[in-house]
Design goal:
With 402 residues, the chain is of the alpha/beta class. It has helices at 65-75, 97-109, 112-116, 128-136, 141-147, 155-158, 195-204, 208-223, 244-247, 249-258, 271-276, 278-290, 306-313, 322-325, 331-346, 359-367; strands spanning 17-20, 31-36, 44-49, 55-59, 79-83, 86-90, 119-122, 161-171, 177-188, 191-193, 231-235, 265-270, 294-300, 317-320, 350-353, 372-374. The longest helix has 16 residues, at 208-223.
Length: 402
């Protein structure tokens, strides 16, 4: 685990602090968790962590689910009013402990598919317009359970301070560092949390688009003082971007404000994410390129559609799948890596091999014609040291003696 000094100079880091507001009376009010992004973008994010509720509406078109929920709620002493495809459950205990127990029971008894098929609205307002809006924007039961910390450790996000670490990417020809990949990290109660856990919780709680934005902006702002002329690789998930012109506006603003030239930014998407909605991905990438940014396709070679996806996306950078690279000297892996590398080069892309941990792997990649390498052999993800500024009064002119 990396040691993260708390006194690290915050003016250079896109840091996000998050904490719960003072406790409320616990009868259905949402506890808003404020996340302050770094001083560069000046934005404010909110994780809406639900408080205890005294009433909940559940709706679904799946016929067998609501009767099961109704039986469970009645067994817990809750008041239930049922109508076709809608259940109104009231907890007479204003502290909401009965509904908390109901959520915990449903998390154990319903399948993941069933929780995804149920919509939940807690403590609906009396005003008709507000009531309708609450129903139309109600999360699924799966999301509600995640936000309440029933199915995931929501405190990983709600209480985290975020920053980026950077792993070097080198030219295999001369081993010089030419780029860095930014990776998001969190700090919760002095414990470092990896990006995988952060994004798992965010996706479970329906907050992926928010955390993805924080990750992009943290990566850019955190690299500003030391990047120099190297390229910066920034990860993104296309499903977190609904309309590129809107969702990427703050990322564009951060890049402009910190002064990193557009041609040094490479936005990286994992192949499995790219396959999900190719049409949407292409529109996102077109917007990236219109801003002068480049595109990298990551984990290429791990799926059956790699070659067709390369031809459709035409990325400027292709990153070979780490697992496939580490299968060398297996002949099958070598054949796939060679085919992907040759196709990428024919499309004008630069090829990066991830997961290089030994000199043997570096030599294998070089022999296959791969341009750049990334892995523990060249450096682990770290929080870079900031350049030390010389005090203005350190050097004093010396008077010439007569």
């Amino acid at each position: 685990m990396l040691h993260i000094p708390r006194e690290y100079p915050r003016k250079w880091i896109a840091t996000s602090s998050a904490r719960l507001d003072p406790p409320l009376d616990g009868v259905g009010h949402s506890l808003t968790v404020g996340t302050i992004c770094g001083g560069v973008c000046g934005c404010r994010q909110h994780w809406e962590v639900p408080g205890r509720a005294s009433r909940v509406l559940l709706a679904t078109s799946i016929g067998h689910v609501l009767p099961h929920v109704s039986r469970t709620a009645k067994a817990l002493g809750l008041t239930v009013h049922a109508s076709p495809q809608l259940l109104d459950v009231v907890d007479q205990d204003k502290r909401g402990r009965g509904l908390e127990r109901l959520f915990q029971r449903l998390a154990r008894e319903l399948t993941a598919a069933e929780t995804e098929a149920v919509r939940v609205a807690t403590d609906p307002p009396d005003d008709d317009a507000a009531f309708t809006a609450r129903l139309l924007t109600a999360p699924t039961l799966a999301v509600e359970l995640a936000r309440r910390g029933v199915t995931v450790e929501v405190g990983v996000l709600a209480e985290a301070e975020f920053w980026s670490v950077y792993q070097p990417i080198v030219s295999l020809a001369d081993r010089s560092v030419v780029a860095h990949e930014a990776l998001l990290r969190g700090l919760v109660d002095g414990r470092e949390v990896g990006g995988g856990d952060l994004f798992f919780v965010a996706e479970s709680a329906g907050w992926l688009h928010r955390l993805d934005r924080i990750g992009r902006e943290s990566a850019i702002a955190g690299a500003m003082p030391w990047l120099g002329t190297d390229d910066l690789f920034v990860n993104f998930n296309p499903t977190s971007i609904y309309r590129p012109q809107v969702c990427l506006a703050s990322t564009e603003r951060v890049a402009h404000d910190v002064g990193i030239p557009p041609n040094q930014l490479v936005f990286e998407v994992v192949e499995s994410h790219a396959i999900a909605d190719r049409g949407h991905l292409v529109s996102v990438l077109e917007h990236y390129r219109s801003l002068g940014w480049r595109v990298a396709l990551d984990d290429v070679g791990s799926g059956w559609s790699s070659l067709s996806l390369l031809a459709a996306v035409k990325p400027e950078v292709v990153k070979l799948d780490k697992g496939l690279v580490q299968e060398l000297p297996d002949d099958g892996a070598r054949t796939v890596l060679k085919a992907v590398t040759d196709l990428a080069h024919s499309l004008g892309a630069v090829v990066v091999a991830e997961g290089i941990e030994t000199e043997q792997l570096a030599e294998e990649m070089t022999a296959l014609g791969v341009d750049m390498g990334q892995g523990w052999l060249f450096g682990r993800p770290v929080r870079p040291e900031l350049p030390v500024e010389e005090p203005e009064d350190r050097w004093q002119p010396v008077e010439r003696t007569r």
